[in-house]
Amino acid sequence: METITMAMLTILLLLSAAFALGDANVRGPFFTFIKTARTWAEAQRHCISLGFNLASVHSSDGAQHLKELVFSETGEFTPTWIGGFEDPKEILEEDRLWFWSDGSKFDYQNWNQGEPNNSGGSEPCIMMNSGGGEGWNDLACGNRLPSVCLGGR
């Protein structure tokens, strides 16, 4: 009886994992592109459920790798959430403070020209592939986009 119960538990766990990763395509050892469009907060919670965070970017090579990952999965430079967000206390300040959801240092930026602009006074989250894959844009966090998770470092 105990063997049957363990076998059933194992199958249940494997099925649960398959459903959880159903919209994910893993590329490389660290990045996971998530096709399902979510708000920034929903995307971050989903990444956490996988043991990751929304992706942080620390170099032009890293930014290029993420653009290629999204392009290879969608066939275009699809606007996609990454883990950058703004300090809510500084949202109305001219010198805005940005952070990565994984707690790493915000030491690289790839903004499109004229960004971040905080259009409408409330754009505290970062999307990549803005303007056809050129760079980043600050955007209202309630927009629904695919996302890239980073983990396993």
TrEMBL record:
Residues 26-150 form the C-type lectin domain. It holds the Pfam family Lectin_C. Keywords: Disulfide bond, Signal. Residues 1-20 form the signal peptide. The keyword Disulfide bond applies. PROSITE patterns: C_TYPE_LECTIN_1 (PS00615), C_TYPE_LECTIN_2 (PS50041). PANTHER family: MANNOSE, PHOSPHOLIPASE, LECTIN RECEPTOR RELATED (PTHR22803). This is C-type lectin domain-containing protein.
